[in-house]
Amino acid sequence: MPRPDKERAPAPYRDDSVYRAAYGVSDGLLADHVIVGRSILPGASMVDLALAAAQARQRPCPALKDVLICRPGVAREQLRVEVRWGNSSFTIHERRNLLCIGRLEERESAPKANVLMFDVAARGEPVEPRALYAELDRLGYRYGPGLQVIRSVLKLADGMLFNLSAGNHRDCRSETMNPALLDGAIQAVLCLLQYSDKPIRPGGLLVPTGIRRLSIHGSVRGTCFVQVGESALTRRADDVLADLQIRNERGRPLLRIEGLLLKYVPRDFLDKFDGPVPAEPS
Q1: Residue 185 and residue 247 in contact, taking contact as beta carbons nearer than 8 Å
Q2: pLDDT for the residue numbered 169
Q3: Which of 58, 130, 253, 266 gets the most CB atoms within 10 Å of its CB?
């Protein structure tokens, strides 16, 4: 008998209100997203799942808002999730565990974010991506090859400019966004913080727990750029609120994030999610 985590993840199952997907821990995003020794589903994948579920229902989805990650998707052998859509809201479940909630914005509105405008051709002091990933690994963020999407970095007077690139893979569920690139934008914030005069406080981690609004303006695939500056960050004690924008090689905006909340948690925060697996409803 092959082990479940060695098999290819089954194709997502869809009906009118439920979108189902599975992730194996031996490869893909779960294998590449290890936080303090545990494979967990990236928060970017929850956004990807919500978009995929909306597309499966043929619903326009220019933006998501009030996205809250209620619980990390901690993988054991295989992580099976369901996305359930209401009229304008969604929930993501793993068995009886509620992982994420959020709402759909069907009509695009003007962004309110304090987004840093930037030039993708800016010049600055190069920073070696391998050094950045080594620092993140030291903190407790272990990114495998599929999530090491930072290709080059420039240190500028007002922040850092990151060139991100990722190929398509089977854990890309939606048609409009590669979750590895969205995760790369979150990685960029962590990297800037470590280069700032107030890095992440020792003994803990910053983890994404919510997004006030995320709007899609183009296909977030292939190669893109994100610039992170202190002016687009709001610090609340040890927590950080960030506004971000992802642009393509021509400088066109592809995705805007307003109010990405990175919550400071102790390094052992995942221990409380190691209890028995809840039984499926009969």
Answers
A1: no
A2: 81
A3: 253
